[in-house]
Every structure is written in structure tokens, then in C-alpha cells.
Amino acid sequence: MWIQPEEVLLAGALWVSERANPFFILQRRRGHGRGGGLSGLLVGTLDVVLDSSARVAPYRILLQTADSQIYWNIACGSSRKEITEHWDWLESNLLQTISIFDNDEDVTTFVKGKISGIITEENRLKKGEEQEEDCGKFREAELKMRRLFGMPDEEKLVNYYSCSYWKGRVPRQGWLYLSVNHLCFYSFLLGKEVTLVVQWTEVTQLEKNATLVFPESIRVSTRNTEHFFSMFLNINDTFKLMEQLANIAMRQLLDNEAFAADRSLPKPCKTLKNVSALKRDLDARAKNERYRMMFRLMQDERLDGHTDCTLWTPFAKMHVVGQLFISNNYICFNSREEDLCQLIIPLREVTIVEKADSSSVLPCPVSISTKNKMNFLFANLKDRDFLVQRISDFLQRTPDSSWGDTSPLSLIGHSASSSAPSSSSTGSESVHRGRHYHPGLPTASQGLLQLYHRDAPEDLGPKAMKEKMKEEAWNIHFSEFGRGVCMYRTSRTRELVLNGIPERLRGELWLLFSGAQNEMSTHPGYYGDLVEQAMGLCSLATEEIERDLHRSMPEHRAFQNETGIAALRRVLTAYAHRNPGIGYCQAMNIVTSVLLLYCTEEEAFWLLVALCERMLPDYYNTRVVGALVDQGVFEDLTRAFLPLLYEHMQELGVISTISLSWFLTLFLSVMPFDSAVLLVDCFFYEGIKVIFQVALAVLHDNMDALLSCSDEGEAMTILGRYLDNVVNKQTVAPPIPHLHALLTSGDDPPPEIDIFDLIKSSYEKFGSLRSDVIEQMRFKQRLKVIQSLEDTAKRSVVRAMMTESAFSIEELEELYCLFKSKHMTSCYWGSSSSAAERHDPSLPYLEQYRIDPAQFTQLFTTLAPWICGGHTPTLSARLFRLLDQNQDGLVNFKEFITGLSGMYHGDMTEKLKLLYKLHLPPALCPEEAESALEATHFFTDDEPQESSFLSDLDILGQQEVTSGEEGKDGGGDSEEKKEEKVKDYRYYLRMWAKEKEPKRETIKDLPRMNQEQFIELCKTLYNMFSEEPLEQELYHSIATVASLLLRIGEVGKKFNNGTKKTDTAALQALPPTQTAALNPQREEGPCEGGSDESQVCRALADAQLEPAALQTSDEETKDDTSVSSYSVVSSSSLQCEDIADDTVLIGGEQRRGSTLDVDWSITFEQVLASLLTEPPLVDYFERKVDIQNKMAACKAQRAVERQISSASDHELTQHSV
After folding, report:
1. 265-289 pLDDT, tens per residue?
2. Where is the composition biased (Low complexity) (predicted)?
């Protein structure tokens, strides 16, 4: 066992060295083992006589360094085997590593730290296995992880391990923390701190390897770097957990199910004695997945437990050793020897479970009987009583009859469908008459092939006789091994499948081997109800289905009429309605049409479910991820089995071109139908393994021809001709012409290849493929494929945004990564499910990732060039409302970049226009202003005034149009009316097209700003300049502009009041009055004389602004109030919030009264012209700001937080010491 390092001064006393290297010595105590002489005898006697607590272990391992006389005892053992295991581990994991260190002190420190870490982890694992460890230590580790890496409470730690992280040539000993969403590492050794955080969604490759440089290690690759971790106590367990967490992350990028799975993980609590509750849950999930895959069970099946046992096989008259699996709905058995025997017993079929009499031949047997009179005898069960009790508990929850429909999609009920087969009354016929699917349909009771063969004369030829012999062989098999779900599945079953399933039995056996039979039995009436719900609905999926219906096996007579087409339509539409995440994908129509030939509609539907959701996972989603993953697996298999051909094919780029169609359609689209359907037989029994085998065999058979190819087209032609001539010489049906065969030309037709020979050779040459190896390769490829799809999405988004923003490609890519990271964070740390629900990979790339106001504020605060201090969240919320055009509470990347680009790359007018809009509805919500109600009334009342000229023109135009229409209608006949209607139709189409055209907004289109909104604008401007170097000049400038705009508003109010007494229409056509108001000489007169103007001056004084800022020639006109107000504004000692509250309360006394001055308003043109008079403001808004520094700060923000937290931790520990 490893022990805490202890100093040893005399290494040779009473000990004999047996092994040594430059750093470690393995010693045996004298008196143990052979030899030892008198001293050994004496030492041995002392060890025996002494009390057991004082005895010394006979073996130990010492750490030594060349320059030191002090040794460190790091391990001891009671047997040679135990100490040798420790010695081997040191040599394989530590010896090469510590040879890199420059001085002996570093070696000692590193080894001591490593041994201490191993002891800690061993103790934790030992206590976890005993179920006695309190959750305190795990809770402490979780809190430490959150503190070190700045993680919120929502981040769940799964497990943590002691290991070494290779930073350069030197390993850093520390702790690896694996959470649901992150891989984290922390080390503080030799005075150096190492902190690493990697999101699982960023991992592109994860593999376990061993090299000369790195001992057995785990490599974690991202797009930009690689990380190596080694010296694990149990590297296999750690790697499996990493794989599971990376898989969850990849699912998160694909769909929302993984986020739901994340939220379903249990949270560690005090009641759990086992610290690793999350890991236990993930391990259970992995076992469930393997169990479901092994026996082709439904997704909701949960494994309860498994145990070793033996099964009596009556056909072989022997006991088969294997494992018994119990879940909530099934009892399954799998032999230890592959393909010897497999058994699936649904609990709905079980009638009796009883304990049989034990004997020496059959210890602890259990007998299980089923409804079809089969009896299964299991023996050698360790805990028979508990097992029988568990089965009885599950049986009590299982109804005697077939299960009811438990799916939430079945809303109509299935009483009609379920009662129809036993009812032939006129009442039931009337119920079925209005339904799209009912038992009276021909395809509801038999496959399409049976419909078209029943009238054909009986064939007595040799092929037909061979078909009958196949049927007879299967009947014998049924009588010997059983028929139905509970059939014994043995190597004999596989032989019969490889020889071809007879047409009459094909549908039944496909259902049995795929597991679809179980799902169909547990959901009676589900398909009929689903058809009723789906038919008549219009969606993108139904449009694509209609387009592809007549392309589905058009050469087959079954799909040359409405019966086959209608059945295909119903099955595809029902599945698209059941699984909107997949909907419909091309190639599904080809596969489904083949299923309908041999199965009824309902059976074909459940086979399609089994294919899309279990046997070919992710094949038929919008991005065909599953097929791309298997394409990558196929390339790896080609590299392993056919290395020469692989290199040549990679140069030509053929593998990726050919394999996609092979996998998506299971060779049905590239091979004659009668041959390809035999591959489908094998596929339903063996799974995807057989498709890989046959694909490799096809390449192997054409290796010489492919190696001589010079381009891709030639290679495609060779493979196409080969597959066209794969024939089934045993088929009974007349040959169906294959479309690819029509392209074959030449005087010498290529030789025919028998499909049975091809399948046989594929098993002989590549039969060593195992399903678990394929799954491992799939995981590796899934990381690559999904990350490459994410890169493609990023490139598409950047390309689309290049024309709509002035950011560079590199800047857009970095902004996209930051935006996506913020979105993903909100998904897995969000308190509600809304964040995960907004992630929809089926949406266009620009809209896939969306953020809510909280995430937008975080990005805005870090990235925006306008720094407003405490006012920043308010400004961010306004910009969010302005960008959220559809008002769904979310902003996508395009909208985000639009707002950011306006702040960074717009000219002064564009920036001011954006700032102006941020203080108008919808950006400025009424609740933000003090006089919200008055401001809203003013805006609604004033809006028609400021646009009345345009609205009057519109009204006149409408009157002319309507009067013209009335004249035409009154004076014309019916034909003229028809012509007019056609003109109206075209007219409205043109108008609609014009409306859809993007309108370029001009400054004249912007609405007027009222006094309350102007106050908010001034607040924002004051806060924007609080951190600027020219802060005083900018404050002075904004005070001047605010004063000027107040006067402009007052002058405008005077003119507006005057216009009420005159003809409105005439005055509407006058030029804007702000051009006169902007002239300082014209303002001085009315300001001194009129009563309204004096009120403005008093309001400016109350507002602590400068009332006569433009009268620069008369310095004496500035009274004490204005001077003091300016001094308050320019005081650098005040906080920006204080300035905003004290200096921008324009008309404060008036607002404290009863009403607001609702007639006061200004336009954007006036704001722009006023700001142009102040050079400091012009310089500020025309200044270019570099976003690179902002993005670097945004990326480093979390790292800075982590460094601060870890530094403070060290300070605390130092103080405590």
C-alpha cells in the first residue's frame, strides 16, 4: 500500500535491497524470504514476538536522490506481489517524468505530492465503495472547484481525480475536476500555479494513448490547443467518464434533449452517503444504453440489475453460462460466448414465475412460463429470493392485457382502431369511413407485395421450390427454438438470416429482430391516432414528402398507383408528426417504401421508428450527423483494413462521396432491389456492423481497378457498375430494373456478382468487426463531425454578416464565439428550461443561437464602446428592446452585430441616430421615466402632428384612388369590373413587393423627442463621459448643447401654438423652423423680451445648466447661478450618478408641480445640428475604437476572476498558517 512519505535515515539497516534505479529502491526485510543468516533469523524472530501493531511490513519502496543521504519511505507491502505492482507503476508512470527535473529537491517535492494525491483518492474511493463516506469531502471539493474556477452553483461536479497535467516538458501534479459542462484542472506546486478550464462543447478530440514522451495519458484536443493528462490511479474509469460528458456536450450542440438530461441529473445532497451521486447516475445511464442496444429495447427502458446465471437450452440439451438482466418491462439473457444464445422475455408475456427445487445439478433454479406455453429455466442464481421478488414487483405493475397507449401524442383515443378487427358492424364502418387510416384499408392488413402477388398463378419453378425450402427451414427453427418475441436467438438463427429470409416471413422477422414488435405491442392504436392528427396539416416536412412520393421506387409496380403512394404518404407524415426534430429527410422515402412492400402500414411505421431512433441514430436529422459519423468510421476502417487503397482513395476524395448514399439508404439506392433487400435482412439482425462489412468487401473486390484510377469520376464509375451487377439468383419475383444499370454501357457487360457470395466474403474477411469497437469509433468521429458542422455554421454566419457590418472576418469569428459561449452558458446554467428551448439547430445559422437580456447586458458591458458606469445596464436594456424586432425577449447574432456595428463603425450621424433611438419607444419603456404617463400621452398625441404633412398626402391619394374606383365601377359593365379586379390584384402585389423591400431610414423619418425623453438622453450623455480624459470639456459641451436644445424646443413650442390658430394644412408645407432657431443672433431677441423665453431661462437656471451659453460676447450676462451651476457640472469630485441626478433635472420645479410641458419637442436634425457646434463632442463620436482590446478583455474576464479567487485563497491560507 502507498503510505505518506516518511524520512528514513539508515536505508541498509535490517533491510536487503532487491531492485534499484536512480530514484527508487525496493527492499525486503531481513528474516523474510530466502537466506538472511543469523541476523535474518534474529530479525524474523523479533517481528514474530512483537505485538501485531508494532510489526513492520516485510517489503518497502524508498525514494532516493543522488545528492541526499535522506531516503523517503513511500510504499510498503505484505507480499512480493503487492509491492511489485507498486514498483511497476512507479517505473511506468513516474520514472521517465522525474528524469526531466533539473534538481533533486523538485524530484522529491513532486513525488511526495503525487503519492499524497494517490493516497487521498484511494481513501475516497474505498469509502465510496463501502457507502460510508459522508458527503462532506465531496461537497468540499465541489465548493473548492467553484471557488477556484469561478463557477456558479448550477455547475455540478461529477468527480475529481489526482493526476498530472503536462505544461511544456514539466508535469504539474494537481487535481482534475470533471463537471457536467467543464473540464477543470488546478495545481499549485513548486511555487507555480496552473489553472485550466475547457468547455466540453469545445472538445474536438478525446483519446487515450501512450508514447515514449508521455506515459499512459489522456489527450484532450480543442480547436486551438492540446492538453495531456497522465498518472491516473485508474485511467480507464476517468476516460469513460470523460467520454460520457463529452457525449452530453455534443448532444447539446445537436438538440435540446441533452439540456433536459442535464437538468434531470440528481443534485448531491446530505442524504446521499455516496459522494459520487452524479457519477453513479451517469454510470447507470451508460449501462442502460448498452442494455438497450444489446437487446434493441425502447428508449425509456431502465435496467434494474443483472446477475450471472445459467440457462437451460432444450434445443442443445445443455446449460449455457451468461448474464440475466432485469428491467421494468423485460427479462433478458445473453450468453457469455458470443452468438451462443440470446433471449428476450417481455413481462407482458409472463404467466408464472416460481422457484424450482434445488439440486446438485441445478442449484437455485427459477422457472419462468409464458403465454405461448414456453418455459425457461435459469439456475446458479446468487440471490434467488430477491430476484423472484423483484420480478414479482414488476409483474404487478404490468397489466395482464396489452398495455394501453401511454404516449402523449395520442390525443384522440384508440377505441375505434383497437375494436375494429373484432367488429364488422355498420356502426364501426361509419366510424372508420371518415378516418384516413382504418382496418378496412388493403395496406392495414398486408404488405404491398402480398396485394400484388395474390392473383398471380402459383410458380412451381426451381426458384420457387428453393423459397419454399427456406420457409420450411424457418418453420423447423420455430418449432425448435420458439416463435415470436421469446424465441431463442442462436448462431443457427444467424445462418438462416444470412441465407435470406423468405418473402412471407420477412415482415414478421424484421419486426422481431429490430425490436419494433415490442414497441408496436405496447402502443396499440397509436399509429392510427397519429395519422388522424397529422393528415391535413401543412408544414415544410409535408411539402418535401409530397415532392418525393413519386420518386420512391417508381420502377416497382406497387408504387405506380394510389394505393402504395397513399400508404407511403401516411407513414412518412405520421412519423414527421411524431418526431418534429427529424421531420422528414431524403432517403427516408426509399427505406419506407421497401418496408411497406413486406409489412402492413403500422408495422412499417414502427420499423421506421426503430431505424431512425435506435438503429441509425441521428441519420435522418437536418444535418445527417449520424451518416457523416459513420462515414468517418468507414474511412477509419478502410485505413485499418485496406491501407494502400485508403491512401489512394483519399487523394481522389472518393470515400466521402460514395459512402453517404450507401449508409443513408442501406444500399437500396445503389444496388438492385432483390439484392439490397438481403442486406436489409442482415442489417435488422446484426445492426450497422454488416453494412460496414459489405462496404469494405465492395472496396476489396475492386481494389486493383480502384488503385489504377486517376480521377474521382473513374472510381465512381467502377463502383457503380460493380454494384449494378450484384444479383440475387434465388429471387422468385420478376427482376425490377435498376435505374443505375441503365447507365451501364459497353460491348462487354461486367460479370455478375452473387449477393450471397458478397455477404459470405464480407464475413470471412471483415467478420472480426465488433459492435462495441464501432461504438467507440463512432464517439471519436462524432466529436469531429459535430465540431466541423459548428465551424461550417460559423463560416456561414460570418460570410452572411460580412456585407451587413464593417467588422473584419477575424473580429466576426471572435464575436460569434463569444456570443455562442454566452448562449450555451445560459442554456446549461439557466434556471428555467426556456434557455434550452431557444436552442433550435433546425433554424437558419444566424438564428440558432439567441441570448436573453441578462446575457446581452453582460456582453454589452464588456464589448460596447460607450462606457456609462452605473447607467450601462439601463442603456443595455434599451438597446436590447430596440434590437428585439419580433419582441420575443431574445436577440440573435445578426441583431447583436447590427447594434454593435453601429456603435463601432458608423459615422457620427449613424452613432447619434442610434443614441437618439435609444431614448424613444420601444427602446425607452414608459416605466423608466418619472412622468411616464404624460410622456406616453405626449408621444401618441404628437405623432400625427409631426407627420401630418405626409399623412395628409396619403389621405388625399387614397381619396383619389377610391373616387376613381367608384367612377369606374359606376360607369362600366361586368367585364370592366373584372379587368379592374385584375388590376387591383396586380396593384396590391406591387405594393406588397414594395413593402417587403428594405427601406433605408433617413433622419427625417425619426419621430420627435419630448421633454422626458430629452432628460433621459442628457443623463446618458453625462454618464458616457465620466471616464474620458477630456471629461471637463465634454461636460461643458453637453451643457451648452442641452441649453441650446431647450431653447429650440421652446421656440418650436411657440410656433406650434401659433399654428393652431391658422390654417394647419398651409403651415404644414412650410420649411422646418429649427433652421431659424439654430441662429444665435435670432435667439437673443426673443430670449430677453418674451415671457415664454424668460420662463425657459428660469427653467435652465433651476436645472443647473448655463442659460446663455451661446452669448459668448457678453460675459457679464452670466449671473451667479449659471456660474455656480457650471462649477457643479465640471466638478470632478462628484460621481457620474450624482451629476446625472443633480444637473439633468431640467424643469425640476415645473415637474414637481401638477403637469409636464407636453408641447415641448425637438427633432433629430436639431440634436445633430446642435452637437455639431461643439468640437469635443464631434471628436468623441468620430473617434475610432478598436474592438480587439474589448474582446480580449471579455475572454480574459473569467480567467481574471479565477486568478483573483485563487490568490485570495492563498492569502487566507498563509494568514491562517
Report:
1. 544 443 344 446 778 888 888 899 9
2. 414-429
